[in-house]
Specification:
This is Energy-coupling factor transporter transmembrane protein EcfT. With about 270 residues, the protein is mainly α. It has ten helices and two strands, in the order H-H-H-H-H-E-E-H-H-H-H-H.
């Protein structure tokens, strides 16, 4: 999960409630349509948002690079497991090829398209969540949880987890680089070999996590955390005109998508 990116873009200035509504709208879009072309529109939209807030390209590449084996597996599995009768259109019921002689275990066109849809859904969700976390400060997240009547303790746990995930990921990369410099081999074969190879990473990670938690608890005690049950904030959440215009656009887009899906029966396989 990326860290907060301090910028002054239009998305940064939006109220967190507007951003959460937009994130919910993207989720609705991703699960509303089955055809990959419609999912590609959602990926393009989230990609434009990422370009708008100036997310470095290396962050996106680093985020998607480990998913390449998963992507290939998803497309292959759905291609072979989705039977032709599951699709409404005859073109999607066609068999691309068979895995075994005798026309056994065929990969359907619809199955491959469905796997591509799952792939685009994954990409859309990852980019949208990155845009949300990169443009929203932890104070805004805390206030949002308060507005949703989430208990203060749970709100603190959630915001702390969101804040420290990228920090722990940075420490993990630093530990891996340090252990490689010391000559540690991470390519041992077998389950036992893999566990033994990653012990030099897991042990420092556990120690760093405990030290970070201890430092955080001392900082909270020094600042009087828990002394009062009334929480105050330096800045209250308020809607501006840009939020009302953005909310109207989100509602219009979601309503149009629902109309296209259920009234026009488009976007299905």
């Amino acid at each position: 999960m990326p860290e907060y990116l301090a910028e002054n873009t239009f998305i940064h200035r939006l109220d967190i409630r507007t951003k959460m509504l937009g994130f919910l709208g993207i989720i609705i879009f991703t699960f509303l349509f089955q055809h990959p072309l419609y999912q590609l529109l959602t990926v393009s939209l989230t990609g434009l948002l990422a370009f708008w807030i100036r997310i470095p390209l290396r962050k996106i590449v680093r985020m998607f690079a480990p998913l390449i084996p998963i992507v290939i597996s998803i497309i292959l599995i759905t291609g072979f497991t989705f039977a032709p009768e599951r699709f409404d259109q005859a073109s999607n019921q066609a068999i691309l090829f068979y895995a075994f002689p005798g026309e056994r275990l065929g990969a359907t066109v619809g199955g491959v398209l469905m796997g591509t849809t799952f792939l685009f859904r994954l990409f859309s969700m990852m980019i949208a969540s990155s845009v949300l976390t990169l443009t929203t400060s932890m104070d805004d997240f805390t206030q949002f949880f308060q507005k949703m009547k989430v208990p203060a303790e749970i709100s603190m746990m959630l915001t702390t987890a969101i804040r420290f995930i990228p920090i722990l990921d940075k420490k993990r990369r630093l530990i891996i680089e340090a252990q490689k410099a010391r000559g540690v081999n991470f390519n041992d074969k077998g389950i036992i070999g893999t566990i033994r190879a990653y012990l030099p990473i897991m042990i420092p990670m556990f120690i760093n996590s405990i030290l970070m938690a201890n430092s955080l608890s001392m900082a909270m005690l020094n600042r009087g955390y828990g002394l009062s049950r009334t929480w105050t904030s330096m800045r209250e959440l308020t809607f501006a005109s840009r939020d009302y215009w953005t909310i109207s656009l989100i509602v219009l887009a979601v309503t149009s998508a629902v109309f296209v899906r259920f009234k026009l029966h488009l976007g299905v396989l």
